[in-house]
Write a structure and sequence with these properties.
By secondary structure, this protein is mostly helical. The chain is built from 7 helices and 2 strands, in the order αααααααββ. Helix content is about 50%, strand content about 0%.
Length: about 170
C-alpha cells in the first residue's frame, strides 16, 4: 500500500530534496504554496485530475496568465511525478489533465526600441552613472544582475573586453 503522506508535507519534502540551484528551488516555492492552499492536507495518493483542474482554475481566478499557469502546472507535475516514483501515488494526475483543459500560452513578440528611437531615449538621461549603465546594458546585452556583479578585474580596457563572470540574483 502507498504511504498516506499529506500533499503539504510532500511538497516541503520535495522542495528540500531538490539538487538544483537555490534560485530555481526558490522559484518553485510559490507553486508549492498555491498547491498547498488548493489541496490542503489531502493525501498525495488521493489527488486526482479534478484536483489539478481546480488548482488551474484557482490560478486563473487570481488573474494569472496562461503562461504563468502553464509554468505552475509544469512544476506541480514534476513534484507529483517524483511522488509517484517514490511510491506516494500510483500516477501523476497532472499528466492526465486533458489537453483542452491545459493553459495555452500566447507567444507575444518582445517589445524593443527601434534604432532611431535610442538617441531620443538616451538624450533624456542625465550624464553620469545611470546613463553609463544603460549604455553598457544596450551595447553588451548583459542582464542587470551581471552588471551589478561586475568587478574591475572583469574589465580589460586595453582590449575593450568585459567578462560577465558572476551575477546577482534576489538582491
Amino acid at each position: 500500500p502507498q504511504p498516506n503522506i499529506p500533499f503539504s508535507e510532500w511538497a516541503d519534502r520535495w522542495l528540500s530534496s531538490l539538487e538544483l540551484k537555490q534560485t530555481t528551488v526558490r522559484s518553485y516555492a510559490p507553486t508549492m504554496n498555491y498547491a498547498k492552499a488548493a489541496f490542503r492536507r489531502k493525501p498525495v495518493r488521493r489527488l486526482r485530475t479534478e484536483d489539478v483542474a481546480r488548482f488551474n482554475s484557482l490560478l486563473r481566478d487570481r488573474g494569472m496568465s496562461a503562461s504563468t499557469r502553464a509554468k505552475h502546472l509544469r512544476v506541480l507535475g514534476a513534484c507529483l511525478q517524483s511522488a509517484a516514483r517514490h511510491g506516494y501515488a500510483a500516477r501523476n494526475p497532472v499528466r492526465d489533465l486533458p489537453r483542452a483543459e491545459r493553459p495555452r500560452p500566447e507567444h507575444k513578440e518582445a517589445a524593443y526600441f527601434e534604432n532611431e528611437e535610442l538617441p531620443r531615449l538616451f538624450a533624456e538621461f542625465p550624464n553620469g552613472l545611470i546613463k553609463t549603465l544603460f549604455l553598457l546594458t544596450l551595447k553588451t546585452g548583459m542582464r542587470q544582475g551581471e552588471i551589478l556583479a561586475l568587478r574591475w578585474g572583469d574589465i580589460d580596457l586595453h582590449n575593450a573586453v568585459i567578462r560577465a563572470r558572476r551575477s546577482y540574483t534576489d538582491g
